[in-house]
Amino acid sequence: MIQLNTLLFIGGTEVVFILFIVVLVFGADKLPEVARGLGKGMRTLKDATNDIKHEVTKSANDSNLIDTDAAKDIQKEINKIKDDVEDFSGSIKRNL
Fold it and tell me: Which parts of 1-96 are beta strand (E)?
């Protein structure tokens, strides 16, 4: 089965058609300016998201809401159980 690369469930033909419409609406001379504006907008959105994430993490750490030791202990237990399951399933696979 061949899997085609898609961007947001849009195929290559649809992307070409959308680009064609964009060139018709904005014109070829305005296209770099529009792309630059979109890039700046996306960068601003990414920076704002990172700032919000940083502030939430900082306030959670200040309020002692995040217990990293407990999270590490839980991760160790999960890894132990995962190893046990893999050992058990490996012996079953060898017997089949």
Answer: none
